[in-house]
Amino acid sequence: MVEEYIRLLIKNGEDGQGLPSQRDIAEKLEVSRTTVKSALLHLQNEGQITSQSRRGIQINKKKDVNLLSMSSLSDELAGENITIEHMDSRLVSVPKNLRDFFGDSLKNIAEIKRIRYRNGVPFSYEITNIDENKFSDITQVNLTNKSLYRVLKESYNTVPVYGFENISATLATDEIRMHLDVAEKTPLYIVESFNFAKSDQPVEHTVQYLSGENFKYHFMAKDILGYQKEANDDIV
């Protein structure tokens, strides 16, 4: 009963909004504070709420993504009201910073730009680079509301199996804030990923810009140096 009551408060509240204190909830529902604390701990473990010193209990509606998972962002967000807008695909010269990844012999790569929406609100602006020599006509594929990884699997029989990511932060520039519909200098995550197939061949490189106002990341691993994802991974 206590947990369902708090879930209702979360559903009707806004991200970052404070919840009543343990004492207030206990008095309203006529239960012990121990019962309330147990319900809050369960919801906190689910990521539904956060608890910080001097700030109390707050609603958390930011989407939580496992940074070390090799699943695509589409799979990470499965079950959410997600739509994808395919903005543009074209051939471009390989940037200097990607020559080691794709190899010196490659002159041009396909550049794919997309925006993801969650409940109609843009939250991710993505620029993907991929070798069109290996994935012929990829620039002709309409990726609106399609997972790139699924297209690679179904049309090219290729699946990224490992990779690495760099995560940093920046403030929204004019171009990016226009795509994400955020105010100037809004804090953004920059997630840059380099992904490979089983043969150690590079598959794709992606840079994602995500609003820090509605996204967060966590790491799930038993051994972060020799990482292998398991069903019972612990938080590190």
Automatic annotation (TrEMBL):
Origin superkingdom: Bacteria
Keyword DNA-binding attributed: yes
HTH gntR-type domain: residues covered: 1-62
Cited SMART domains: HTH_GNTR (SM00345), UTRA (SM00866)
Alphabetical keyword list: DNA-binding, Transcription, Transcription regulation
PANTHER family (UniProt xref): GNTR-FAMILY TRANSCRIPTIONAL REGULATOR, MANNOSYL-D-GLYCERATE TRANSPORT/METABOLISM SYSTEM REPRESSOR MNGR-RELATED
Name of the protein described by the UniProt record: GntR family transcriptional regulator
